[in-house]
UniProtKB/TrEMBL annotation:
SUPFAM superfamilies cross-referenced by the UniProt entry: Thioesterase/thiol ester dehydrase-isomerase
Organism: Pseudomonas umsongensis
Pfam families given in the database record: DUF4442
Protein name: DUF4442 domain-containing protein
InterPro entries assigned to the protein according to its UniProt record, in alphabetical order: DUF4442, HotDog_dom_sf
Length: 161
């Protein structure tokens, strides 16, 4: 069934739809707007509503983080393939300004990052790339900056002898 759906709609489009139906995202009002076919560009947004608003009426910090949490890991998994172990290791969030309305984030990964990961992990060593994504409001003002550290290692069976 999944293979048929993937062939019919494309993996990126199917993932986008699935993520938009994911209960934590539904509850927080997070929308995955776009996932490129090569999983190198992802765009997400979150409106401001009574269910993701904090005590002072702005975006709840936990929802801001939730909005950006899984994407770097998913993007690397799709681009590096099953030969790699990829986990989120740690994260930090710097709140710059209150989110008083809808907010947006865009993730990008490129060949330079993927080549560096492959180079660093070729002998089976772990690599901890540090990535960053900015969250902006509708006017383009910076609301928060999220740093993510990922754990990446080439699986033993994929290593050169």
């Amino acid at each position: 069934m999944f293979k048929w759906l993937t062939r019919r709609f494309g993996k990126a489009r199917l993932m986008c739809r699935f993520m938009n139906l994911y209960p934590p995202y539904l509850g927080a009002g997070v929308r995955v707007r776009y996932i490129s076919d090569d999983f190198r560009d992802v765009q997400v947004s979150m409106g401001l509503s009574w269910y993701n608003r904090n005590y002072v009426g702005t975006q709840f910090g936990g929802s801001l983080y939730s909005m950006v949490d899984p994407f770097f890991m998913l993007m690397l998994m799709e681009n590096l393939g099953r030969e790699y172990i990829i986990w989120d290791k740690s994260a930090d969030i710097d709140f710059i300004a209150p989110g008083k309305g809808p907010v947006f984030a865009r993730f990008n990964i490129d060949d330079t990052l993927l080549d560096e990961i492959r180079r660093q992990t070729a002998e089976g060593k772990k690599y901890l790339p540090q990535l960053q994504v900015d969250i902006h409001d509708g006017a383009g003002h910076l609301v928060a900056r999220v740093g993510k550290t990922l754990y990446v290692r080439l699986k033993p069976q994929a290593r050169q002898a």
